[in-house]
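As the next step, I wrote out a protein sequence along with its fold in token form, included below for the reader:
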Amino acid sequence: MAFFLETLLGGLMAGMLYSLVALGFVLIYKASGVFNFAQGAMVLFAALAMARFAEWLPQVTGLTHPVLVNLIAFVLAGGVMFIVAWLIERLVLRRLVNQEGTTLLMATLGIAYFLEGLGQTIFGNDIYKIDIGMPKDPVMAFDHVFPGGLLINQEDLIAALIAALLVALLSVFFQKTSTGRALRAVADDHQAAQSIGIPLNRIWVIVWCVAGVVALVAGMIWGSKLGVQFSLATVALRALPVVILGGLTSVPGAIIGGLIIGVGEKLSEVFLGPYVGGGIEIWFAYVLALLFLLVRPQGLFGEKIIDRV
């Protein structure tokens, strides 16, 4: 029982991190109606910015306190992501208003390759470290309930709590604020939103800025766990089954989908892996997403769109 609970907790914590990356996809889709293939590049770019700022700050300013250095580096990296979001809207999206979704999709692919190249040019292509002080050693808990207790990874637990807090804040933002309602209106129909006075350009800047902050938090956490390297951009691919499962238009769907995928990967790896061979955690999520596409294409919480002609 204790082993099963350890596996379940590990899956839930990994699922929260998947949800965090998936949120970036959901945010952009809700505002523009297009799938943002640049999200992985944004995670990488944000993580590179924070890692390099944290490295340069002690050399430039003489600061040595790690908490203060990381806080300033986070703020500076957030500012960089705001500038990136503004430039994307100004130079790309503003010229593609009311265009077909395929056109916007191809634009995000171009943005992804541009950000990867720009990040390599500005910040370098080595493997960098982000140390935000999260404890690495696992701890034993609930030893008075289970013989031997439960082994819990402190780093994964803290990362999951950070992700959960950000997800909760974004959920409130979308449901309770006028800007969040305007974002939903823009996603439903660009022209109708413009006709009632919603400034499409400003909404896109806001949502790309928010997606940039989400990418920064995701990059900070994944960079702390894996190191900041260019393979970090592929982390976003692990979130694709999450948005398919939860629904492209649903913030709660990104959360539930991430938890299902995280738990499913861990349980399948432990209990099915010995029977089907290694590597099941790599393809399990995609097979599950494929099944959902066949049965419920809009996902668990996605909106079923009916076009009348």
